[in-house]
Amino acid sequence: xxxxxxxxxxxxxxxxxxxxxxxxxxxxxxxxxxxxxxxxxxxxxxxxxxxxxxxxxxxxxxxxxxxxxxxxxxxxxxxxxx
Length: 82
Known about the structure:
- By secondary structure, the chain is an alpha+beta fold.
- It has helices at 3-9, 16-24, and strands at 28-30, 33-34, 46-51, 54-60, 76-81.
- 20% of the residues lie in helices and 29% in strands.
- Helix 1 (3-9) packs across helix 2.
């Protein structure tokens, strides 16, 4: 699954276009590296998201094209939140 789509489906970022621009501006890193929005997310990847002063690191637990709002957080596990 593409990184920008995973961010939208997991509801870490609300819109796919916003997710795409966040990845392009290096606000989202995968395993500590800058990648493109088309990066193929794998289970156990660690995503680092920078939102202003905050940083959130999440570990990908599962991939799914469609999930409900209640199940969205089951796609990842929060590793650190600062």
